[in-house]
Design brief:
DUF2293, 8 helices, elongated, DUF2293 domain-containing protein, 231 residues
């Protein structure tokens, strides 16, 4: 017999899904969807005393493991892969009652996981709010002339979870001056200059940035000054 792609358990039964039409050597039933080899001869599941088991396809590791734990009798089901020249697991045969108990255990776990995910989501939301507030405060410290609502908008945009923006980078999380300045400059570039229109008109990105660089720097210099000083 060719090797298994995934080793079978050291103790347990092995059932084969044949590629060719095979009949039971004892009761002559067939063609067999599954068989057990005994002394080199195929036996159907009924003749091998496995007919009362139900098939659980592979895919759910937790359910498979628990079904085997809950079943006094179980077997690994394999099928030969000609291309790989090896047997590959297709699932397991387990007792129907054992499968039902395993499903109940998994359902209980699923509810626990759902509640945990909800708690984690609430915790992350609180963390995100605190971080966005800290980011906005750092913007106001570096750019005191930036309006408060604009600072909050920049911080929320830059620090959105899963966005891949500068606020989620290591430098952004550390609130480095470079990261905060980059976020502010990006906001100015898109909202206070014709940068987006240049891109839409076909101007290459680097050329578009060159054209609006002076306007961005002018706005950043203005925001670095206290509003009272400007007045």
């Amino acid at each position: 017999m060719a090797p298994l792609a995934t080793p079978a358990p050291r103790t347990g039964l092995l059932v084969i899904q044949p590629l060719k039409r095979r009949r039971c050597a004892e009761c002559h039933a067939g063609p067999l969807q599954m068989l057990v080899l005994e002394d080199g001869a195929p036996r159907c599941l009924d003749c091998a005393d496995l007919g009362h088991l139900v098939f659980l396809p592979r895919g759910d590791t937790a359910l498979t493991r628990r079904s085997r734990e809950e079943s006094a009798l179980s077997a690994v089901v394999v099928r030969f892969n000609r291309r790989g020249s090896r047997y590959e697991r297709q699932g397991v045969l387990v007792e129907e009652a054992g499968l039902a108990r395993a499903e109940q255990r998994c359902l209980a776990d699923a509810e626990a996981r759902r509640r945990r995910r909800a708690r984690d989501a609430r915790r992350r939301a609180r963390e995100d709010v605190r971080f966005a507030e800290a980011f906005a405060a750092e913007i106001r410290r570096l750019f005191p002339g930036c309006p408060a609502d604009r600072a909050r908008d920049i911080a929320a945009h830059a620090s959105a979870r899963g966005s891949g923006r500068v606020g989620r980078s290591a430098a952004g999380r550390a609130l480095t001056e470079g990261a905060v300045t980059w976020a502010v400059a990006a906001s100015v570039r898109h909202l206070d200059t014709p940068y987006d229109q240049l891109l839409m008109s076909g101007v290459p990105r680097h050329e578009a940035r060159r054209r609006i660089a002076a306007a961005v720097e002018t706005r950043l210099r203005a925001w670095r000054v206290e509003v009272s000083e400007v007045g």
